Amino acid sequence: MLESLGSTGSLTANPWIYAPWIYALVALSVLLDVFLPVLPSGALVIMAATAAAAGSATGRGPRDLPDILALTFCAATASVLGDLVAYRLARRGGSRLDRAIARSRRLATAQERLGAALATGGGALVVLARFAPAGRSLVSLGAGAAHRRTRDFLPWSALAGLTWATYSVALGYFGGQWLGTTWLATAVSLAALLGAGAGAAYLIRRPRRTVEAS
To answer: Which SS3 state, helix, strand or coil, does residue 10 take?
Structure first.
């Protein structure tokens, strides 16, 4: 009875974690969440990384578990590809998209701030936005709609995707190492990811609030 309860509470009891198509599922989720921010891409990455932490504990071979380096590469690559798709679509959106952005204060502000950041050679906003809720969508669409040069946007998008993927995988992996490969470890790691998103959103909004206050 106790063994049954233990396996139920363990993330490694779920067979889908060990299937090769977990990489495809993670990639598809990360790729599409630039258009559908409600997709649980971060949770999927963390769950797969938490399962990877079970290798030494369960004795499963590398073919049975997600590899953290492959998982990081998969998530980062899908993130950049999603950014580029959104960027290209927005760039070709024409006047209809311009009017839609003009009607949205949030999109218009993001476009303006992104343009200023890229024009001065800085792209920290792109990296921060990758963690903020829907920030990736705003930045990618804003860059495309403003016809920013690909060479100005792509390097920062790549850095943002790699930073986000590395952080997410590290949370899941080390959370699994320290707390065990259980749903509790996943929940704690996901809370840390959401906390980073809240912090990024605050940093993005803070300069604008300062200007408005003055």
So the answer is: strand
pTM of the model: 0.78
> What angle, 0 to 180 degrees and rounded to 10, lies between the N-to-C axes of helices 183-213 and 135-145?
50
* Cα 207 from Cα 183, distance rounded (Å): 38
For residue 174, give the nearest of 186, 156, 162 by alpha carbon. Answer: 186
Between the alpha carbon of residue 143 and those of residues 101, 112, 118, 205, the distances in Å are 12, 9, 9, 18
- Looking at residue 56, what is its pLDDT? 45
Per-block average pLDDT, block size 10, for the chain (214 residues)?
A: 37 56 90 87 90 61 67 95 91 67 64 60 79 85 82 91 96 85 82 91 63 36
- Characterise 14 by phi-psi region: left (phi > 0), alpha (psi -120 to 50), beta (else): beta
1-20 in b/e form (b: 16+ CB < 10 A) is eeeeeeeeebbbeeeebbee
- Residue whose token pair is 């399962």: 51
Residue 191 tokens, joined: 């809370």
Give the pLDDT of residue 45.
Answer: 93
Nearest to 71 by CA among 5, 23, 129: 23
**Cα separation, 59 vs 55, whole angstroms:** 6
Extract the tokens encoding 181: 């490969």
Mapping DSSP to helix (H, G, I), strand (E, B) and coil, where does residue 182 land? strand
Cα atoms in the 13 Å half-sphere on the side-chain side of 72: 16
